[in-house]
Specification:
This protein has 140 residues and is mainly beta. Helix content is 14%, strand content 47%. The protein has helices at residues 3-17, 55-59; strands at 27-30, 37-43, 46-53, 81-89, 93-101, 106-116, 119-127, 130-138. The protein is globular, with a radius of gyration of 19 Å.
Length: 140
């Protein structure tokens, strides 16, 4: 077999064997803590995400962002609270964004990595190596 043809065949087989997933993180995602659900969407050229609901919000829909380090923002509702901002890149990894954690009122630098069509890994760091990673599961 000629080298060029052999290389083409190997490339085709490798493409078939590689995991196939869309690499599209937009949609509704289940978080592993507090029954949280976050909707990720496109915001211009970047990805952003809002907290749609959680066990706490379902129990008390009037909950506010009481732990925010900015006192002026503590009265904003937790429902539809912006949590993810400014993630760019793709097709399977987005970086350079920030992750807001309403549980402690702090914002962390972050990255999003697709692990499959219905699984993503969200990583938030104070400063590397002080990071925390969560695996989220697609709801829709």
């Amino acid at each position: 077999m000629r080298p060029a043809l052999f290389a083409a065949v190997v490339s085709a087989v490798a493409a078939l064997a590689a995991p196939a997933f869309a690499g599209d993180p937009t949609g509704l995602w289940q978080t592993p803590t507090n029954g949280g659900q976050v909707r990720i969407s496109r915001c211009g050229q970047a990805l952003c995400g809002v907290l749609v609901t959680s066990a706490s919000i379902r129990a008390n829909p009037s909950l506010t962002d009481e732990h925010n380090s900015d006192r002026a923002l503590r009265s904003r509702p937790l429902r539809n609270l912006p949590m993810l901002r400014g993630f760019t890149g793709g097709p399977t990894e987005w970086t350079g964004g920030s992750v807001y954690n309403p549980a402690d009122g702090r914002t962390y630098s972050g990255s999003i990595t697709m692990q499959g069509e219905d699984t993503l890994r969200l990583r938030g760091c104070v400063v590397a190596p002080l990071c925390r990673t969560q695996t989220w599961t697609r709801i829709q």
